[in-house]
Amino acid sequence: MVKAVLDAGVVVTGAGGGIGAALARRFAAEGARVVVNDLDADKAKAVAEEIGGTAVPGDASAIVADARDALGGTVDVYCANAGVAFEDGAADGPLDERTWGLSWDVNVMAHVRAAHELLPGWLERGGGRFVSTVSAAGLLTMIGAPSYSVTKHGAYAFAEWLSLTYRHRGLKVHAICPQGVRTDMLAATGSAGDLVLHPTAIAPKAVADALFRGIEEDRFLILPHPEVAGFYQARAGDPDRWLAGMNHLQRTWEETR
């Protein structure tokens, strides 16, 4: 058992399946009391019943108060996991107002809104844990998915900001940045995901395992695909070379479409 989460009140958004369900299962197995959130009420209820948790369905941006009540008044760990992904990088440009608006609202603002609700209590208590499911796309960039790439960069930046601003006041922050994970969201990445993500895709459980190793080691950046660290270093060390390589990948993708 990980002492940091034993009997903790935990909220996991987007937990009706995929990474969220895996996180909810792992927290419950570690002795936490878990609120399972999902837009799909039936999926949330099914996972909650499986793990002995409580289902609080609805928009992830607006469930903190209900989740807090379900946990007896205190949220100790908040997993901002709900997200959306689109293949919206058409050859004629990246502008699709609907996907940009939805991506920004779910992938970034839901995190901001949750933190806004949680921070006063956490700072008063001197402790809390915010887990942001970002993506390797938030450290790098994903071909064919501009709204996903940009908003995941935003989610990562917000997690960094939370950590650097409040760590001396007891806030623990973790940013999970996997590449491909075998979930429904992976299918939404379309042919670009088939080329880039499918070959090394891992199971959702592996993401939960990586998070718990990070919790035990008190690490901010969680890399379920360790090779992402090298890619991130290469991007920072020689941006032009990295961009040239990514453009080669882009051209390969265009040739296969």
Keywords:
single chain, 257 residues, alpha/beta, 10 helices, 7 strands
Average pLDDT works out at 93
Structural class: alpha/beta
Number of helices, where a helix is a run of at least 4 consecutive DSSP H or I residues: 10
Approximate helicity band: 40-55%
Terminal-residue CA separation: 47 Å
Strand order of the largest sheet: 3-2-1-4-5-6-7
Please tell me what the overall shape is.
Answer: globular
- Return the string of H and E elements: EHEHEHEHEHEHHHEHH
Strand segment tally: 7
Q: Describe the largest sheet.
A: 7 strands, parallel
Low-confidence stretches: none
Radius of gyration: 18 Å
Strand content: 5-15%
Please, could you describe this protein's structure?
Keywords: Oxidoreductase. Belongs to the short-chain dehydrogenases/reductases (SDR) family. This is SDR family oxidoreductase. InterPro entries: NAD(P)-bd_dom_sf, Sc_DH/Rdtase_CS, SDR_fam. It holds the Pfam family adh_short. By secondary structure, the chain is α/β, with parallel strands linked by helices. It has ten helices and seven strands. Strands 3-2-1-4-5-6-7 form a seven-stranded parallel β-sheet, with helices on both faces. Strand 4, helix 4 (97-125) and strand 5 form a beta-alpha-beta unit. Helix 1 packs across helix 8, helix 4 runs parallel beside helix 5 and helix 9 (228-237) packs across helix 10. It is globular. The N and C termini lie far apart (47 Å). The mean pLDDT is 93.
